[in-house]
Design brief:
six-stranded mixed sheet; 10% strand; 18 helices; 385 residues; ClpP/crotonase-like_dom_sf; HIBYL-CoA-H; four-stranded mixed sheet; 2-enoyl-CoA Hydratase, Chain A, domain 1; alpha/beta
Length: 385
């Protein structure tokens, strides 16, 4: 072989190795941070997975949040792509940890996500969440604790865990209990989705902005002077004439039916309501895991007056404990994998769900690890992160 050919092959080999390393690095950048002077944009960067909050993303987000909260005057938080802010926790990753018996990794995933929620909640600088697209589960959790929460016509906001026989987590106990009337109980039990301006009207967003204006809003915020008011900038660009809340006609029914003390009583009141909305709600609830429904209602009732830390500890225990019972695996399988199959719940009827079974979901599991990490964060937040 000619020595020049050998030289070129060597150079090509080095280039390919370098390119592979760069590609590997890019693939592992689940969070991107863009700094603009004393402000920052943090981007959840898993668009193919709808920016699902897996282990790598959670830890990179913690690192980015810590740095930006300490060094910047403002943070914009958004998702990569135009489909999702975040579809929530990576359920397939959770399922894999469970099936491999990796309880430590499952616990760490839960704790790491909750650390980010707590960092956003306690941030000493404003955090502005652009809730464009799907904002489910953990994505709803992260956005709900931002200082400013910007919904668009594309926003889909939900805690849909009941649909897979799971429970609202990521601070859901806290913010669902602070929704108007019994709306949070309705959303937590049905898993229904709020869309567009309804997210604002329900109180889960502070502002409503057309998606075509988000880039203008971002630039206005990032390049504003210290004298400019963030409130005024956001108010000027966001919409003022917002459509009425689509659930307004049934809010009285929601408040009456979902104030009932048990799932059975909720279903009874819905049957008595007799409207098409009530009939559809009953039809959906009866498809869900009886155990999940009873645990979710107890979760919301127990956490009604909890602070965020207490909610996160309770939810950590619940999340791990749910995987000791069959329904969440069955729900994940029939919803995400073998779509369309009718789930076989165990137990299959509400009256078969005992108090003992409900209480087992609240037993100590990941809570102490969550408490330990929150205590560390509290010390750091009170001084310097």
């Amino acid at each position: 072989m000619h020595k020049n050919s050998s030289f070129l092959l060597t150079r090509l080999s080095k280039y390919l190795k370098s390119a592979c390393r760069m590609l590997s690095t890019a693939e592992n950048q689940h969070v991107l941070t863009k700094e603009v002077g004393d402000k920052a944009v943090i981007i959840l960067n898993r668009p193919k997975s709808l920016n699902a909050l897996g282990t790598i993303l959670n830890r990179q987000l913690t690192e980015s949040l810590r740095k930006c909260i300490n060094e910047k005057s403002l943070i914009i938080l958004k998702g990569a792509g135009d489909k999702a802010f975040s579809a929530g926790g990576d359920l397939l990753e959770v399922k894999a940890y469970f099936e491999d018996g990796q309880w430590k990794k499952l616990t760490e995933l839960i704790v790491d996500l909750n650390i980010n929620i707590y960092l956003i909640h306690t941030s000493k600088v404003p955090v502005i969440a652009f809730m464009n697209g799907i904002t489910f589960g953990g994505g709803a959790g992260i956005s709900s604790f931002a200082t400013y929460k910007i919904a668009t016509e594309n926003t889909q906001f939900a805690m849909p865990e009941s649909k897979i026989a799971f429970h609202p987590n990521s601070g859901g106990t806290y913010f669902l209990n602070r929704a108007k009337g019994r709306l949070g109980y309705y959303l937590g039990l049905t898993g229904n989705t709020l869309k567009g301006s309804d997210v604002f009207q329900a109180g889960f967003a502070t502002h409503y902005c057309l998606s075509k204006n988000l880039e203008t809003l971002e630039k206005a915020i990032l390049y504003s002077s210290k004298q400019d008011s963030i409130n005024e900038i956001i108010d000027d660009i966001c919409e003022r004439n917002i459509p009425d809340f689509s659930l307004a006609p049934v809010m009285d029914s929601i408040n009456r039916c979902f104030a009932a003390p048990t799932v059975e009583d909720i279903l009874k009141k819905l049957d008595e309501d007799g409207t098409d909305w009530a009939k559809k709600t009953v039809e959906n609830l009866r498809k869900y895991s009886p155990t999940s429904l009873k645990v979710i209602l107890r979760q919301l009732q127990k956490g009604r007056h909890f602070n965020l830390e207490e909610c996160l500890v309770m939810e950590s225990n619940l999340t791990v404990n749910f995987y000791h019972f069959p329904d969440v695996i069955e729900g994940t399988r029939t919803t995400l994998i073998n779509k369309g199959e009718i789930a076989q719940w165990n137990p299959s009827r509400l009256e078969s769900v005992t108090e003992e079974l409900i209480n087992q979901h609240f037993e100590e599991s990941a809570g102490e690890e969550q408490r330990k990490m929150l205590r560390k964060l509290q010390i750091n937040v009170n001084s310097k992160i």
